[in-house]
Amino acid sequence: MKLKKNNLKFLTVSIMGIAVVLLIASLIYLLQHRELNVSINDFEQETVPLRDYGVVDAGSIQEEQGNHFFRLLYSQSNTKHIVGSTSPHSGYLVESLPAIPKTASVLTFRYRTDGISDLRLSLNFKHQSLSWFLKLTLTNDWAQIQLPIYKQLSKPLIDETVESLHITTFATVPETKNSTFLDLDDFCFHTEKLPQSTIQRVETKLTEKAEALDAIRKYVVITNLHVTVSTYPEGEKVQLKYDIMNTGKDSIQIPLNNNDCSQPMRLLGIIQAWIEPLDDYAKTTDFGRSAKKGNKYAAGGSILPFRDKVFKSGQLLHKNMSISKELSSGRYKYYLEFKSIDSSAIINEETVQFTIVPK
Questions:
Q1: In DSSP terms, which residues pair with 124 in a beta bridge?
Q2: Core vs surface per residue 57-89: b (16+ CB within 10 A) or e
Q3: pTM of the model
Q4: Which of 17, 129, 264, 359 is most buried by its number of CB atoms within 10 A?
C-alpha cells in the first residue's frame, strides 16, 4: 500500500513537472513570436509637430470622437501666396516616444485622404535614417500602411533607438475645391514573424552594405565645382559643373537602396545646394520661403544614382546643374554639400562665387 502511494506521489510530481516545462516552453514561444505594437506617436500627447520645412503652414492636431490625429490641410487660402513653378509643400518634425527597433519591426500607421497622395517619411534612428517615398491611394475611410524596416536599413541595428519621425507632403489644391487634406495617426512598430534564418541573412547583407557606405563616406567626394562663366546677365540661368570622384586606392561596391516608389537603385549620396547673397544688391533677391541656414538659402537637392555596381579607384563622374531662380544683380556664393545616403551627414562641401549683372 505504501509503495502504491509513493508511486502515485511520484507520478503526480512528474505530471506537474511536465506541465511546468510545457508552460515555460509556451511562454518562451509566445515571447519570441508575439506581435508587439510599440508606439512611436499617436498624437495623443500635448506636443505639436514642428514645421521645419516647406512653404505652407498645413499641419495641426485634430480631434474626432475623443481620438487625436495629425491633419495636413492645403487650402486656397494658405497656398494663395505660392506662385510660379513652386509646388505647395510642408514638412514636420514629430517627436517619438521611446521605441527600440528590431530587424523584424514594421513601421505601421493609419491614414485617410481626399486628394493628397505624395507622402514622404523619414524615420530617424540614433545612427541611421530610413526614408520612404509613398504614393497613397485616396480613401475617405482610415486605411493602414505597413512598411518593413529591414528593407530600408543601411546597417545592423546596434544600440539603436527612434529619435524622431519627419513627415513631408506635396499637394496642389484643385481649382474646383476649397481644400484637400491628409490625416495621419497611430505610428508604431509592429513585430513581424520572420524566420531566424531570414533575420540572419538580412543582418549579413546589412553588414556588407554598412562597409560599402563607410567606404563611400571615406573616399567619395565632390570636387572641381565651377561656373561656366563668372558673370551672368539678369534672367539667364547660372550653369555649374562638378565632378564626383573615388579618391581611394580600391574600387567600391555600391549597394542597392530600396525605395517604395521606384525600382531599387544604387545611390552614392545626396546633393544639397545653398546660395548666399554677398552684397546689398544680391540681398534684394526674393527667396520666398526657402529654407535658411545662417545667411544661406536652400537652392535645391537631389539623390545621386550610380548605374554601375563598382565605383573604380580614381574614377570621375562629370555632373551638370543650373540655378533656375531669378537672381537680382550682385555677388553670390554657391555651396554644394555631398551627404551620406543613410544619415544625411555632410561628407564634403565645395563652393564657388559668381556675379549677376544688369542686362
A1: 129, 164
A2: ebbeeeeeeeeebbbbbbbeebbeebeeeeebb
A3: 0.64
A4: 129
pLDDT of residue 9: 55
Q: Which of 272, 246, 270, 273 is nearest to 259 (CA)?
A: 270
pLDDT digits (tens, 9 = 90+) for 8-36: 555 555 566 565 555 665 554 444 444 45
Range 303-338 burial, b when 16+ CB lie within 10 A, else e:
bbebeeeebeeebebebebebebebebbebbbbbbb
Listed by start position, the domains of the chain span 37-191, 206-357
Decide if 279 contacts 285 (C-beta within 8 A).
no
In this prediction, the residues of the chain whose per-residue pLDDT falls under 50 are 2-3, 28-35, 260-261
CATH of domain 37-191: 2.60.120.260
What's the pLDDT at 81?
85
Q: What is the pLDDT of residue 23?
A: 61
Give the CATH number of domain 206-357.
2.60.40.10
C-alpha cell at 7: 508511486
